Amino acid sequence: xxxxxLLNLFPKPMTTNRRHFLKLAASSxxxxxxxxxxxxxxxxxxHIVIIGGGFAGATAAKTIKLLAPDLKVTLIEKNRHYFTxxxxxxxxxxxxxxxxxxIDYHQLSSRYSIHVIHDSAIDIDxxxxxxxxxxGRTLNYDRLxxxxxxxxxxxxxxxxxxxxxxxxxxAWQAGEQTRLLQQQLLxxxxxxxxxxxxxxxxxxxxxxxxERASLIAWYCKRxxxxxxxxxxxHKRAFSKQTLFEQAWRKHYGYGENGxxxxxxxxxxxxxxxDAKNKVLETDFxxxxxxxxxxxxxxxxxxxxxQKSGLTDESGWCLxxxxxxxxKLQPNIHVIGDAAEMTPLxxxxxAANSQAQACAFAVVSLIKDLPLADPLWMNTCYSLITDDQxxxxxxxxxxxxxxxxxxxxxxxxxxQDTRTEALQMEAKFARHWYDAIIQQSFN
Length: 442
Ligand SMILES: Cc1cc2nc3c(=O)[nH]c(=O)nc-3n(C[C@H](O)[C@H](O)[C@H](O)COP(=O)(O)OP(=O)(O)OC[C@H]3O[C@@H](n4cnc5c(N)ncnc54)[C@H](O)[C@@H]3O)c2cc1C
Known about the structure:
31% of the residues lie in helices and 25% in strands. It is α/β, with parallel strands linked by helices. Helix 4 runs parallel beside helix 11 (348-367), helix 4 (55-67) packs across helix 12 and helix 8 runs parallel beside helix 9.
């Protein structure tokens, strides 16, 4: 990203009046920690419980403790280790390991006095304001933040059965799934066929499938150069399309005679997958016998959100963008991928940004302080080779109708496609990864 784009990332608070500046600054955690330790002490120990310790939940827990150390914060996370989806495609490219994606919760609990419970939340009672955990405990809350990430709509294809993803990995939640997909790539024949099925919107990480195709191609170009990668996409256009297509043409060959081929199949969606024989069939009867099928299913909010009446027919959780409070259940906030906050994408950066805004709102509501207008940011880097990347960066705010909109002129997609510029973006991508982990979990 060039320096103009970096500068453009920020709306222009410096030229506006002091009130506007304070509103923007109020969504910065640094500002909040000073403001809150000095102004928010109103002798009230509320209990805030957070379900899900991903980018959204971990950031919310940490930010609340930074803002108001007197509040009691409990984080419920079912796994002892969290594997980041960001950088999981790098594993498929062969230049990162699955183990290096793992994060534990030690820093969050010891540094910020967050009570971390490793268990699954199986039920929420919004009337009693309590949560049932799988291992038998019940917790009461004053405010609840639900951030369980995504779940999958398997019923969209015929052939799904329990254990299906152990043969046909989605690798859209990182860890064992990433390992399995990598293993399949390593063991497939030299002239193998890989099919990537990509869902329609909305889903986690809009540019993720195309970064994946690029990095699988990067691996194959070196180790299995006769490979064919076919992308079957359930939409007509995709994020950073021109930049991706340019990169594919340059590095891997694109189209019928290249390594990567992309097809929009909106009118001819994937109908069935025979997992045992690795055969995928579409509605019109097109059949692909592949060596590796990476079926990325359509998605919805994590199961606990669905079970607790937080989702509507879209499968996502409707929230008031000002506070992230659910429109369907009082005193429950939803953040991260599970929340419907269009046009904000479902990304780790956006989840981190939403979590900070939500933490401020929750503390303000508990302490009976005025709410600040939130400001959200997102930057998505996508590696196209091991050392080149492209990016999209945008800033979002609330308009006067209370809806989220992009700040005009702030951010954009990569403009400079010279090799040196793309190499610089890859360096930014690696720094971004370290920084978001630091900011969310440490
Ligand atoms: C291949 C890939 C690449 C990506 N790359 C990027 C990138 O470069 N940049 C970027 O910004 N984003 C990227 N993303 C998107 C990013 O991973 C998600 O947007 C982000 O993880 C969302 O965070 P979250 O906290 O909402 O959900 P999650 O990260 O999924 O966290 C949810 C957590 O909740 C826990 N949980 C769920 N239900 C329960 C329950 N009932 N009880 C207890 N715990 C529960 C889960 O175990 C999990 O730890 C990528 C995604 C993919 C798939």
